[in-house]
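Reopening this one. Same input as before:
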Amino acid sequence: MQEQYRTVARAGTHETEINRSRFICALAPVATEDEAREFVAGVRAAHPAATHNCFAYVLGADASVQRASDDGEPGGTAGAPMLQMLLRRDMRYTAAVVTRYYGGVKLGAGGLIRAYGGAVGEALDSLSTTTRHRLRLATVTVGHQRAGRLENDLRAMGRTVRDVRYGESVTIEIGLPDAELDAFRAWLADATAGEATLTPGDEVFS
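Same output, byte for byte:
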């Protein structure tokens, strides 16, 4: 089971020129296939005069959804190398569109493969990426007297505190790796003299 994946931290573009052809790679983090399609459509709308707008995207922490399009380039010379570059860099939930403005010099199949794959690679190098880890959401419920100290201790330990809610008691939502659940439960009992309860919830990537 995939414990982590990488994605781009934000949308952005990177341009390169090869034998007078302009290759503009646009990257964006996408959560769903609809978002990926919307991103591709948006780039195409922004470059209506381009010779080609080729795309590739990968969804799912385990890369369960993979799509690519050559958009008129010779089969396998654009979308496939773009997709392979995303997979080689372990990118997930990421969409890439390479817009080409033809400059009058034919690159040949090998040249196109290098150009499209390279455009994605250079864009990934120029834009920041982030790694997301699989975490178990868990809710800690504790009395008001211990809540402030406990929250500070959790943050000081580097735990991911996602939410704090105040009511009759205080609930603190955290994320932690499954492998650390038992050890954390023991630490929590010791730190609060057994006054806090821990309720595990769903898995997320964060």
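So the earlier flakiness isn't reproducible anymore. For the record, The mean pLDDT is 95.
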